[in-house]
Amino acid sequence: MAVGFLNWTMVALLFAAPSSLESAALEREARQIETMLVAPCCWMQQVSEHQSEASEGVKRQIRSLLTAGNTRQQVLDAFVAQYGRRILVVPPDEGFGRWLYIGLLGGFIAGGAGLFRFVRRMSRRQPGADAAPPQTVDSAYAERLEQELRNLD
């Protein structure tokens, strides 16, 4: 009798094991999604870290959507539809922001190239090449200057 009980227990455990594996995978996925969403009560912390009724509600909603068979992207899309894009910790890379970064990067590259050319051109110049030629001093002026400087002493 004990052998029959063990066999049925083993069979029951075999059928229960996939369900526990599925629930562990579902819980792992839910926790990853929680790190991708911002708590809708204050918009300051991730749902995974925030302690509020609103974040607990989001956590329950994530698990119910995953249990219903939704994928990660479908769950995230459902929250974006409900709260808007600001619910996402990292918004999608679209629109003006991408072009702004590309423009800034291009500006830095062009500025660096211009600075390089300027420094290179300045280093090739001969010292004093653009200095004004020395002016000749009128001898009468020089003598008068010497006379005034002697009178100061």
CATH architecture of the domain at 8-87: Orthogonal Bundle
Assign an overall shape.
Answer: rod-shaped
Give the number of DSSP strands. Answer: 0
Strand percentage, roughly?
under 5%
CATH class of the domain at 8-87: Mainly Alpha
Q: Classify the secondary structure makeup into a structural class.
A: mainly alpha
Describe what you observe in this structure:
This protein has 5 helices and no strands. The chain is an all-alpha fold. The relative contact order is 0.06.
Describe how the helices and strands are arranged.
Blueprint: H1 2-34, H2 53-67, H3 72-83, H4 96-124, H5 139-152
Entry summary:
This protein is mostly helical and 153 residues long. It has helices at residues 2-34, 53-67, 72-83, 96-124, 139-152.
For this entry, give a set of tags.
rod-shaped, mainly alpha, disordered N terminus, 153 residues, 5 helices, single chain, Helicase, Ruva Protein, domain 3, 0% strand, 67% helix
